[in-house]
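task queued by scheduler; priority normal; single chain, no ligands, no partner chains; default sampling; output format set to structure tokens
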Amino acid sequence: MLLILIIYVAAGMALYFFQTKLLFHPEPLPQDHAFVFENPFEERKVLYDSSTLFSIVRFQPLNDSAKKGAIIYFHGNMNNIAYYAPFANNFIHYGYEVWMMDYPGYGKSTGELTEEILYIEAEEVYKMVKAAGFSANSIIIYGKSLGTGIATQLASRRNCKRLILESPYYSIPNVAAHYAWMYPVDWMTEFKIPANEYIQKVTAPVTIFHGTDDATIAYSNTEDLQPLLKPGDEVITIEGGGHNDLNDYSEMKRKLDSLLR
């Protein structure tokens, strides 16, 4: 019994002290790294303070004269912009710019990674998009995986045309509890990102995509979020969809087409 208790405490301490490494899997890049993308783009860097630099890439539609609006895209917890750049294709051929940012520690972004700085960076990018001439009713906020909570927080504070969430979570503690149900994760987790609270303050229409076979963020997260949605908000359930393959399903392609065309 004592051995079991020792293992329980030791494993709990490991989870607590290494939680940031378990949650975030960044791939940093040197500042002189030259991005190469198939679509036209502009790289921007915003120095927030002496140690925090936000790296942002602005992808342009091929036909600039037919520009419809802007997508603010919040990516997942792995890699960097270079990995997620191909997803910009979902939007640019409909005439949307795509503004994609790396979180501190990802790509060329630097600084300490905290929940507060994630929200601050989101706000900074929103301001940049507005300053580029886009009105709130032409801005779509899009979140994928980890980025869904950040996107929802921004949409709860700033007006936009629509909030689109791909594989969202109820909150970070809720996701942690799925894996570490035997621990009091509510007070152990440093990052909270309570999407369940933020989504109730979003006035824009909300569209959620989630696969039933998602082994990373269980579909039950969307089931828990659904009662919090407004009339007119929608959940697109992808039967058999996993965490990183929803883009391959015709249901998602058709729905994005109807929203963006």
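post-processing summary
- The chain has one domain: 39-260.
- The first helix runs from residue 2 to 17.
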